């Protein structure tokens, strides 16, 4: 992570962009406080890519197997019926 002021970034934008393309995160500051981050387009696209979730997985499953209807309570019970972890406050 690199910190640079907005004023310095104006003077060295080309070099900062090259560093961002090489994988650096350039944090821009104003009055000592971070206000923006310069990152590569590749990193930006990766951050914006949709992420899989259990909810989306179940929705996709329901779309494929539409004849099977499960209630939200049934799906919620899957999580609740998992084996408990062993835990003790003692060593």
From TrEMBL:
InterPro entries, alphabetized: Antitoxin_Phd/YefM, phD/YefM_antitoxin, YefM-like_sf
NCBIfam families attached to this UniProt entry: phd_fam
Function per UniProt: Antitoxin component of a type II toxin-antitoxin (TA) system.
PANTHER family: ANTITOXIN YAFN (PTHR33713:SF10), ANTITOXIN YAFN-RELATED (PTHR33713)
Similarity comment text for this entry: Belongs to the phD/YefM antitoxin family.
Protein name stated in the entry: Antitoxin
Lineage: Bacteria, Pseudomonadati, Pseudomonadota, Gammaproteobacteria, Thiotrichales
